[in-house]
Structures are given as structure tokens and as C-alpha cells.
Amino acid sequence: MAEYLLLFRGGKGMDRDQSAQEYQEDMQKWVQWMANLSAQGKLGPAQPLKPEGKVVKGTSKLVTDGPFIEGKEMVGGYLVCKADSYDEAVEIAKQCPILESESGIVEVRSIMEMKM
Amino acid sequence: MSEQFNINKLTDHLFRREAGKMSAILIKIFGTENLQLSEDVIQETFINAMRVWSLNGIPDSPSAWLMRAAKNKAIDFIRKNKFSRSIDFSDPERMLLQSEYTLTSTIDKLWNEDEITDDLLRMMFACCHEELSEENQITLMLKILCGFSTAEIAKAFVTSEDTVSKRLYRAKEFFRTKKIKPEFPPASHLKDKTGTVLRTIYLLFNEGYSSTHADKLIRKDLLDQSMYLCNLLCVHSSTQLPETFAAMALMCFHAARINSRIDEHHEIILLQNQDRGKWDRSLIDKGYDYLNKAAFGNEINSYHIEAAIAYEHCISPSFEQTNWKNILRYYDMLAAINPSSIVLLNRLTVIFKVYGAEQTLKEVEQALCNKEWQKNYLYHSLMGDVYACKDFNKAKAFYETAIGMTKSDAEKKLLNKKISQLALKT
Fold first, then answer.
1. What ipTM does the predicted assembly reach?
2. How far is B390 from B7, CA to CA, in rounded Å?
3. Position A116 in a domain
4. What is the tens place of the pLDDT at every residue in A58-87?
5. CA-based nearest distance A88→chain B, Å
6. Domain-by-domain residue ranges, chain B?
7. Which of A43, A85, B96, B114 is placed for a possible disulfide with B106 were both Cys, Cβ 3.0 to 4.6 Å?
8. CB contact, 8 Å: B83 with chain A?
9. Structure confidence by residue, pLDDT tens digits, B312-328
10. B371: Cβ contacts below 8 Å, ≥ 6 apart
């Protein structure tokens, strides 16, 4: 089984106008999705990220406020999952509640084993 | 000043009851291997409550305040320790505690106060694990479910705090190494396991009922706690067995008489001298209701019979009018299912009441458990009574042996009184 990183962008979480109840309902969907993965032994570390941040760049280590990209495309959280294949990881990603919103994006990346 | 006084008065009882509920939930979250951690969270919650309440006054719903505070502390602790090995996150449900996506929702789900009775019962089954000694079972129940401090447990068992600490340490180690999970036993074991829990609760009750404690408050507390625990079994559908109700009935009948049993000098008042007006009629009625509820199924348990005996005493208007023949019949039934030396000794006491000294001595001659009886001060005390009207010297010797055998001051005083009354007769 290999590990895959799921990066979340956009989605309802970025929407500041969500009511408390909508937020609750949304979170319940995340819980169900992750509990399901956990029960199958496929859940790894997962955390949501705050919208603000800093960017450190290049040899001069220039620090700027960031990320500068538009809010909707900013990474809003990550989850590491275990899957037998890329296809399976993609299937897992398709179940992510973030995709209930048109702006939701899940980027699925395979974690590379570094050969020394 | 008065606010502080109110807080202290309120918190004593409240903290104890809430501590039991908090433990049951916290241990479910942290695992039985982290009993100490759950105790720390509870302790901190209470200290914080005392501080905040003395500044801002008591909140409208103190128990909801406490539960919320403890829940937040649990969340904080998990946040800070999500990479620590102290909590076993490999359990699928606990794994969700590691992610902020799911942490608070998962805690909310685990912290469901509607399921508190389930949690308390699961914890009770864990505390009464068959590999723990009875005294460790009781110690754990008092500590975890009844919110007793080590000092209070020591006082309840007339032992040192050190001894209690050691017992708790051993029990915690057992939980930690065996990773005991608080859960309902499978249906096939439910009856057995409930029986074990009932026995432990009844031992706890007897600790409060027996006369070894001079401290009236502690005694009352033990009775209250054991009845509280038994009541939890009575209200939960899976533990509503005939023996559960029968044990509860028995405890009601005994507890109803507790106030008339010991006088102000900590001396035992014999049944014949008790002021029956002091008996708690409402508790006797409650016991009778439980006894009725216990009457289903086709099995008679020793709790049923013991409750029937206690009830027979409760409804008799005076000692003289006690229906001893009925009581003897119950003892015959009890001896048939549980021929222990104690039961047979109690039966012998009733034979003495019904048929007098000669018949009693005949029974003693034929008895098979003479050896065990010899080791029990109650036997010597009874034989003192049997000989009281026949042979003064023999009676005195029996009483003296009994005095040498009991640790209870109240019993000693009573036996000495009997000796002095012998002297008056001659």
C-alpha cells in the first residue's frame, strides 16, 4: 500500500458566509468521510490550514505575506491516505465533501519514496 | 464569605457525582491505560471551578458548566499530545482525534450525556474484572465511579492511605498492561458479569452497613453510593435482571433501618430494642416495589430470599410479633441454594428463636460446618445467648471468646453488656 497526499483547495470552507448550522453539517460530512477511511485503516495525518501565511523565497530568503494566489486556489488543508493504487486514491478523493461545492478541488499526489 | 460557604457546600456532593460521570467519559476517550490522566483532568476542572465560581458566583447549571469545562480540557490535552504515545490513537475512532477536521466532532460524539448510563455501566464492568481482587474492584469503583479521594477510601476501609494508593496503583497497572476496554459483556456473559458487579456493590453496601465504622457520615456515604450504583443497573434495559432488582430491594430494606441500628455512643442497638418508628417507611415501600419487579423469570436468587427475610422484619410491628416461622422457611430455602457457614449460622439463630435452646444444641451437634463456625465470633455470641438461661459460666466463656474475636468496638460493648446482664440474672 502506498501513501498519497490529498491537497484541498476552494470549497465551502473558504466561504465566510456559512451559517453555524451549515458549518456543522459540512463538518459532519468530513467526519463521516474520514471515519470511513479510518475504519479501513487508510487514514493518515490530516489537518485544515488557516488562510493567512508567509512565503519565504530563494537564496535571499525573502519573506512576504502570502500565499499570494487567489483565495479559492489556496491550499486549505491536507490529508494523507493509504491506497493500493493511484486509481484507488483518486476514488477516495472523489468522496471528499469539498467536492460538493463547484469551487472545490482535490489534488491527489503520490508520495515518492526517495531512493538513496 | 457566605458565597464561599455555599460553594463548598454545593461542590462536595456535586463534584462527587460529576466526577463519576466525567471519569466514565474521559476514560473512554483516553483509554483505561490513562486512568491517571483522566483523574488529572477532573482535578484541574474542579480546582478551576472553585476559583472561577468564587469570583463570578455559581453558574445557573453547575453540572453542565463542569462537564463543558472538562470536555474543553480533554480537547486541549489531545491537541497538545496528538503525536505523543501516551494515547493509543491506533483505535479507528481515536484516530479521528488527531485531526482538527474531526477532533471536536468526535469528542462531542463521545461526550454524549444521553449515553452516560451506558458509559457508567461499561466502566462498572471494567472495574469488576474477574482478574482483579474484590478489594481492588471496590477500591476502583469508589475512585472512578463515586469520586472518592484516596483518603476517603482509606477512611471507608479503616486502612492507611498508603495501602489504598498501592491497591490503586496495582489496579491501574492491570488496566494499562491488559488494555482493558470498558464495554458491555456479550449477551452470553451478561448475567454472570452482572452477578459479579452486584456482588461487588453488595460488598460495598455491607462495608457501610457493618458496624466497624465509628464514622456515621462515611457509613451513610457508602450506602448511598452502593445504592446509586445498583440503581444504574436497575434503569438500564440490559442489566434489568431479577437479581438486580432483588439486590436493590434488599439494600432498601437494610438501609431503611440504619438510623435505628446504632445509638449516639456508637453502640449497636439489637433488633428487639430498635425504635421501629425510626425506620424509613418510604424506603421500605421503595424496596417492596423493587421486590415486586424482581419477581419475574423462574429462578430464585439468594438476593430474593435475603430481601424477603429483611422485608419480613420490616413489616413486623414489633420484635415479639416477628413471624420467625416464615423467616426460618426462608432460611431453609437460602440454605438449599447457598449452604455457606454464615447462612447456616443465621439459620441456627432463627432456630433458637423458634424452637429454643435444646433444639439449637441438637442442630449444632449435627452441623457439618462446626469448624467454620468456631472461627466466627457470631457463633460464640449466639452460643452465649443459648446458654444464658442454662449455664452462666458457659455463657460467659462464649461471650468472652466472641469479644476476643471481633474487631468492632460496638460489638465488644454489646457483648460486655450481655455479660453484665448475665450477672444480674444469677
1. 0.88
2. 61
3. no
4. 999 999 887 666 666 789 999 999 999 999
5. 20
6. 1-111, 376-426
7. B96
8. no
9. 999 999 999 999 999 99
10. none
